[in-house]
Amino acid sequence: MRLFLSLLLLSLPLHASANWYSESREMMGTQVTVELWSEDKAKGLQIIEQAMAAMQRVDRMMNPLNPDSALYQVNQQAYAAPVSVPEALFGVIERALHYSRLSDGAFDISFASVGKYYDYRAGRAPSAEFVAQKRKHINYRAIALNPKNHSVAFHTGDLQVDLGGIAKGYAVDQAITVLIEAGIVAGFVSAGGDSRVLGDHGDRPRMIGIKHPRKKDEFAVMIPLADTAISTSGDYERFFIKDNIRLHHILDPKTGHSSGAVQSVSVLAPLAIDSDALSTTTFVLGVERGLALINSLPGIDAIIIDSEGKLHYSAGLLRQTP
Ligand code: ADP
Ligand code: MG
Fold first, then answer.
1. In angstroms, what is the span from residue 243 Cα to ligand 1's centroid?
2. What CATH code is assigned to 65-154?
3. CB 3.0-4.6 Å disulfide test: which of 25, 32, 109, 317 passes with 313?
4. Mean pLDDT of 153-171
5. How many percent of the chain have pLDDT more than 90?
6. CATH architecture, domain defined by 1-16+202-322
7. How far, in Å, is the centroid of ligand 2 from the Cα of 280?
8. Domain spans of the chain?
């Protein structure tokens, strides 16, 4: 009888008593979600709190509108003299500059030198003359990093930095690190368009939908993911239409105006800091140059929806499609 019972127990699925726990909150100007698989409810909920707190710390450090943030101090003072910043902020700016160099400036956190004059919610854009005049202050080469004292200096006055194209991805990675360090083997973290899947979803991959850029509440593609980050940049999240032109939140640094190259880009990468930066980068580069960049990076893939709504896949995804 005892033998029978233990055989029965062995045949039950692993962690039969475990459950998925999930929390969503407003943070970083978007909805963030942390989900995880845990055998212990109290412990699971506590780890979710810790992951939320990790993202909150990133927001406090990197929100350019918060006068207490390290990034605010940089924007205020880095032209006058180098500003020492926390290691995390230094690392994110360093990664951002890496993608600026890779993309010949398509990704540029100093886009904000022009970008900060847009108000998408109010439907306000600066005049073409104003953009033409401010555009010269978009220049990642004028941002100097000193690894010895983790300092940031601007070589140009009027230069402003905004990490909106990379910080949410970094925050997602920080939350996933909390999960991993707490021993969680399956989880999911998302902040708006940036998500990362830890492990899988039970015994199968998690299905992630890529939003249709023109049909609200519809998906253009569903893809199965495990242990991967995915970020989507679209022209439909924050935009308004003026004189028949769609003005949205991704700027082409070369013109200072919204990039019209594509409607949406989703990038898959091991880390969300990379998928986030690369989705914005590829959006600005457009289909051809974007795919050339993605295909040159090992372990990175992309799905692009072009300006006509047509889908384009990177080489790694085409290899997987039968
Ligand atoms: P979100 O997840 O906020 O929709 P995306 O990853 O699509 O963000 O990136 C858009 C954000 O990136 C913008 O809101 C802005 O903060 C920033 N951004 C816009 N243009 C650029 C650019 N050329 N280089 C770097 N960052 C940019
Ligand atoms: Mg991005």
1. 23
2. 1.10.3980.10
3. 317
4. 97
5. 85
6. Roll (3.10)
7. 4
8. 1-16+202-322, 65-154
